[in-house]
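Example record

One chain of 180 residues, shown exactly as stored in the release files.
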Amino acid sequence: MHAFTLEPAPGLCEMLQLALDEEEASGGAVALEVKDPVAREQLVLEAAGLLEGKKEMLSTYFGIGLGINKSINRDRDEDEDEDEDTGVTGAAGGGSSNGSSSGIADIAVTSLPRLVDGHTPCMDWLPAFLLELALQVEWDEEAACFQSLALALGRFYARVPDIPDYARPVPRGALGGTEV
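Predicted structure tokens for this chain:
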């Protein structure tokens, strides 16, 4: 499958957190159910872990690449070095990463499929797409999995950027002029 590389590769956990934040801002059901920050972080880690566990299938059949983001690792190593210098201990980056979740926190979305030549999906919708993959794809049954994943991909690739009201074209005749 043809794919294009995302450079820089966005962090998977960061994208999932952005999606939850957007859900909350728009009154989405998932965010309304999970208001506790610890529960939200747990949801993000579980969703990222699920997708990481499916990365071989996502890559092979759908061209969705997940891998280790070296810049995330480098930033975390620099933060840990700073912490060592100051004598402060704890999770790098201010998060509550522990030994079991540090690998998940390093995962990034490295590539997406090229479904149509010359078309790149609007990256504004990438967080919502990833959250949909984690929460709405039916992973347990093969046919349902492929169908729900294909639908999620289709929705992601069909969405266009939101256009602010001031940038929308004015319909003919709306300004009191006459149509030609």
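Notes: Strands lie at 3-5, 65-68, 107-113.
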